ATP-binding protein (Streptomonospora nanhaiensis), 159 residues
Amino acid sequence: MRPLVHWEHRMYSGDFRELPLVRAHLAHDLAGFDPDLVGTLQLCLSELFANTLKYTDSGTAHGEVLRALSMPDRATLRLSVSDSGGGDGVPRIPAGRSDDEWGQAEGQRGLLLVENLSRRWGHHPLGPWGDLGTGVWAEFDADPDAVPSGLRPYVFTHD
């Protein structure tokens, strides 16, 4: 399905210090959308960005993270984060924890948060023939009547 709106991709270095910029760029790109929706996407993007740095080669000196954003239809915003590869598995929510263990867990809650704030989420390999990385995406409900007018099919993101 061809997106109704597609924002130019943004690339970031594999450094946690980029996170404020990553969040600011998303807010800039979604100017005019409902602020609560933008805040939800920023929170989920923060979690996905941090996961790419923690669990893949994106968190190394030469690592990169690619952020993609689109509207496949007037009621959906789709956010995607792709890593540089080198991960040790597929993104998943930890299973087998008791309520007490979840209550005491300090980490591994990011995907649980994404699952609960998005309509749906998933992941896919960037290349079936090698470890080229993983794309993790999440879709969010957007009120079609509140979508800013004047969005073009392709939105350039440079500031």
About this structure: The chain has a mean pLDDT of 85.
